[in-house]
Design a protein that fits this description.
With about 170 residues, the chain is α+β, with helices and mostly antiparallel strands. It has five helices and six strands, in the order H-H-E-E-E-H-E-E-H-H-E. A six-stranded antiparallel beta barrel has the order 1-2-3-6-5-4. The protein is globular and about 40 Å long. It starts with a helix and ends in a 9-residue tail after the last strand. The model has no long low-confidence stretch (mean pLDDT about 90).
Amino acid sequence: MRHVSQRYRLTRWLYRGGRPNRLARLMNRISAAHFASGVFVPRNWVTLEVTGRRSGRVVSLPLVLAQHQGARYLVAMLGRDTNWVRNVRAAGGRAVLRHGRRESVRLSEVPVADRAPVLRRYLDLAPGARPHVPVGRHPSLAEIARIADRYPVFRVDPEPADHPRTG
């Protein structure tokens, strides 16, 4: 049990203030490249590529893709003010997922009232997110619903054929 609490403290330290520190940024770059390759990683570990709202450059980061009731979702474990969430909103939801291959996608924000079941599924799949989401180890949907407004959830759909991704 002590090992678990030390791991949580480390994870919280890496993302103190809701932003990755220098070590976390380095680890994220390495993980993004690894997840994008699709080699020796679970199918739900993906790299999100989205155009930066200020730089105009493609920003890549590793995420866990949660499947729930036949749909795919991405969750912002650090909350609503994370850069990738702002970038996705600025890009009109257009992004690319990579896991061995590139997939142009459209991300649609899920209404707060519909987030709880997806957040619970996400927490089952992404134990590294647990230190950032203030719920118990086996939270009820009601417990998750109370904090759902703080954690954006995006449904992942294929990019419509009439809107090919440029760049």
